[in-house]
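Structure in, sequence out. Go:
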C-alpha cells in the first residue's frame, strides 16, 4: 500500500492511497459444481488494485465530515451462481470488473451526549469482461447485489451516569439480483431502536439492554440469493421484533 496525507489546515486533511489486494477463495466457495466431491479446479483467486482520494475534517469542534472517491480494478472477481435444481450456490470468476464509488459522511454533536450521523454511498460496480459458465456475455452489466444508492441516519445518546439510547434508519436503493440484470429488487428502508444502562466498577462492566428491530414493520428482503435458479432470489426479513440481554464483562 502507498498512501499520502496532507494537512491543508489544522483541521482539514486531504489523503490518497493506492493498494493491491489478493483474496483466495474461501473454503465454502470451493464446492465442485461438476460433482458431489472434490474442489472446483476452475476457481482462481481474486485480485484488485484500489485507488482512493478523500478529504476529512472537523468544524468548530462539533462537526466531523469525510468525503472519498474510489476506483477499484478487479481481476477474476468471485461471483456466485446456481445450477438448475441444485439449490446450492457455486462460484466462478468474472474476467475483469470495475468498482467506482463515492462515500460521504457527516457527524454532528447536536447536544451534550447526543450525536447525529448521516452517511451516503453511491456505487457503480460493473463487469467489464465476463462470460458465464452458460456462455452468456455479461460485459457492461452491473454487478448484482450492490445498490447504486445507500443512505443511513443514526442518533446516539449517552448520559454520564450510564444511560444510553439510539435510533438508526437505513435506506437501500434498488439493485439487480442476477448477472444478466433482468431481475431488480425494490428499494426499502428499515429502522431500529436500542437503549440500555452501562455500569462499570473496576475491571467489571455490566450492561443490560433492550431494543426493537424493524420498528415500523417494513416488508423487505433480509437476503437475496444472487443468480438463484428458478427465480428463488428472495428471503424475507423478520417482522418487527424485540430483544433484551445483559452483557457482563471483565477486563484483564
Amino acid at each position: 500500500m502507498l498512501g499520502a496525507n496532507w494537512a491543508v489546515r489544522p483541521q482539514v486533511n486531504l489523503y490518497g492511497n493506492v493498494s493491491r489486494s489478493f483474496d483466495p477463495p474461501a473454503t465454502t466457495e470451493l464446492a465442485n459444481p461438476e460433482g458431489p466431491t472434490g474442489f472446483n479446479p476452475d476457481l482462481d483467486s481474486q485480485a484488485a488494485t484500489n485507488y482512493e482520494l478523500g478529504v476529512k475534517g472537523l468544524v468548530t469542534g462539533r462537526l466531523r465530515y469525510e468525503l472519498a472517491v474510489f476506483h477499484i480494478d478487479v481481476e477474476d472477481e468471485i461471483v456466485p451462481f446456481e445450477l438448475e435444481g441444485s439449490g446450492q450456490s457455486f462460484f466462478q470468476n468474472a474476467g475483469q470488473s470495475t468498482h467506482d464509488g463515492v462515500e460521504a459522511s457527516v457527524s454532528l454533536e447536536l447536544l451534550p451526549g447526543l450525536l447525529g450521523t448521516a452517511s451516503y454511498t453511491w456505487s457503480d460496480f460493473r463487469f467489464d469482461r465476463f462470460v458465464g459458465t452458460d456462455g452468456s456475455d455479461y460485459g457492461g452489466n452491473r454487478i448484482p447485489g450492490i445498490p447504486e444508492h445507500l443512505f443511513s441516519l443514526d442518533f446516539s445518546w449517552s448520559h454520564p451516569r450510564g444511560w444510553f439510547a439510539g435510533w438508526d434508519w437505513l435506506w437501500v436503493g434498488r439493485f439487480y439480483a442476477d448477472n444478466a440484470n433482468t431481475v431488480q429488487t425494490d428499494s426499502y428502508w428499515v429502522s431500529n431502536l436500542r437503549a440500555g444502562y452501562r455500569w462499570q466498577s473496576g475491571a467489571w462492566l455490566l450492561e443490560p439492554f433492550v431494543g426493537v428491530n424493524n420498528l415500523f414493520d417494513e416488508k423487505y428482503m433480509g437476503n437475496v440469493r444472487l443468480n438463484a435458479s428458478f427465480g428463488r432470489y428472495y428471503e424475507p426479513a423478520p417482522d418487527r421484533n424485540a430483544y433484551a440481554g445483559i452483557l457482563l464483562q471483565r477486563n484483564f
